[in-house]
């Protein structure tokens, strides 16, 4: 079902975790929540990731890891102090899971790219419409799999002019539980941290206020860290050998902020006359990314493909612990997969800031069930054919992705897509 919101404004500007014996289990659940009270206790960004490699670390000695030995280990971290909020918000849809495990502290670095705000323009009618779809993949013989994707849609995120959207793609035995856990926890934590993020304690002033950008960056990073630590602190499901991607965007009338971990992706299409300019809002965190690769190798990790029964390398490059056949992750960042933290797999989000233009725009968030065989340009151009009908756009995109999986692979990955139409008129 298509969702929409209209506001008059004055414009100022396949399987990643290679663990053959683990099977996906249980089912994806969703909670539909309205008017919840948060408990007490979202320029251009293109090219390579703006990453600063971590300091080179010594290659760790060979150690044999087992799930039991890892779960017995004790890791501590400082507790984050967050601002409380009494303001109610409307959650359109989030996936929900709870539960408790180890805690681990991630080193964070400054990676927010800031662009100049747009000049003052006359009043325009700002409107946003969106739709989403999430369908389970299939194995050989059309046997349906457990859908390990989750997504979040939050209207009136910080105030009535702001929105949050997110896509999570789980992997491993508990991937569906982890993605659902993140989709419930992270939006609420971001909401609380952003409501009073001004150093002077002032209320939210919009995503384009330059004075607030350093605190905005810190709030997003600390929100991801807190969610990651909560994930490790639960003991209901495994997050040592399982994990999830996480790509979120936050939108107001002036800007779109993207925070990403893993290889789910967000892109934007900007209409210029009769053409669409396509930009990536996020970068995929994979071993092919040279800066990501350097961090893994500096941490003592090994990057190589798996071998088939004939000894030939096949599939994507994966991250391994030296001397071990673990974790075999085809990503370099993950929410979870704590076994890989010793070889540079981190949960730190990469953040981009993109001013919205005074024209039609299309924003697409999706798991790699879409991006594996569909390019950024193909996705935007197809969605543009259905301008004004976001539900038709997500349906056609999911069909294109599914058809290409069927032509190229014996399996079809889970496919989750959110299409957002942004309009300035008047």
UniProtKB/TrEMBL annotation:
PROSITE patterns: PPM_2. One of its GO terms (cellular component) is membrane. Keywords: Membrane. Residues 132-422 form the PPM-type phosphatase domain. Gene3D superfamilies: PPM-type phosphatase domain (3.60.40.10). InterPro entries: PP2C, PPM-type-like_dom_sf, PPM-type_phosphatase-like_dom. It is found in: Membrane. One of its GO terms (molecular function) is protein serine/threonine phosphatase activity. This is PPM-type phosphatase domain-containing protein.
